[in-house]
Amino acid sequence: MKKSILFLSAAVGLLATTSCQNFKKGDGGLEYNIVKDAGAEKAQAGDLLSVDMIVTSDRKDSLLQSTYDIGLPQIVNIAPDSIPGLYAGDYNSMFKMLGEGDSAVFRLNLDTMAAKTGQPKPEFADHYATFKVKVRKHFKKGDLTDSALYAQIDEYFKAEIETLKQAEEGKLASYISKNKLEPKKTDSGLQYIVKEEGSGNKAVVGDTVVVNYTGSLVNGKIFDTNNAETAKKENTFNPMRQYEPIRFRVGHDPVIQGWTEGLQLLNKGSKATLLVPSSIGYGERGGGTIPPYAPLVFDVELVDIIPGPTEAPADSAAVN
């Protein structure tokens, strides 16, 4: 938990530091500000950097990516300049200015990128993408074989994931304390708060449930919702998606165990918060924007319960 707090503090500090930038001009329209130079050797072609990074565009509410949401760094491969499509002042150039312990802010000129690469300019920005970068570790290629270099990366990530595993219980406890919750807890570790009681029978295995939901990490980052307005606020709205209640048959359709168990605690019309540990969520692998060993928060509304088929007695089909 302490490490996660440090990462978040670093992100906030970097954002505060970069709120008023004095950028230097580089090749290809690249602008940069080295916030901290730790004096370490800078990355070269073939090296790998483990970085924390926040990416935004020059549009309002334009957060595009943040490793702080996931709690895991991103690995950046420093490519040789001979690769077609690379140019001075591009994405690759940024990281060659950095070494272990360094932090910096870069503004990548997307008009230059389009002109140099012959590719259309990305639609997520007008002219610039901004990268706020902090280097955690520098993996030097040197004389190492590719397999030896990537073995180092593998061991590094195993340690990072173990840190997430050890932090999970503390993250969930902190969330409960911060939000002054008093959840009930089941034997599986699921915790839940019924905010509005519904009526009628509770859902059982075989029933089809109709559910509105919003899922988030304990840091408040929403990773999925069927609410269009919420998706728009989070800049995750997909115009190709139908934002409507999800339907699934309890115990038959593949959903996480936390949902299968949690929705059987509710009756029609109930609204509740489900606190789902990773053991009954997405586990050690995570999924999409959900990190490994991530406790999850689901705000759910059980809109309807459609009773499952009633099985006839075993001898009812017998003909005398």
From TrEMBL:
One of its GO terms (molecular function) is isomerase activity. InterPro entries: PPIase_dom_sf (IPR046357), PPIase_FKBP_dom (IPR001179). The keyword Iron does not apply. Coiled coil: none annotated. The keyword Lipid metabolism does not apply. Its EC number is 5.2.1.8. PANTHER family: 39 KDA FK506-BINDING NUCLEAR PROTEIN, FKBP-TYPE PEPTIDYL-PROLYL CIS-TRANS ISOMERASE FKPA. This is Peptidyl-prolyl cis-trans isomerase. It comes from Sphingobacterium micropteri.
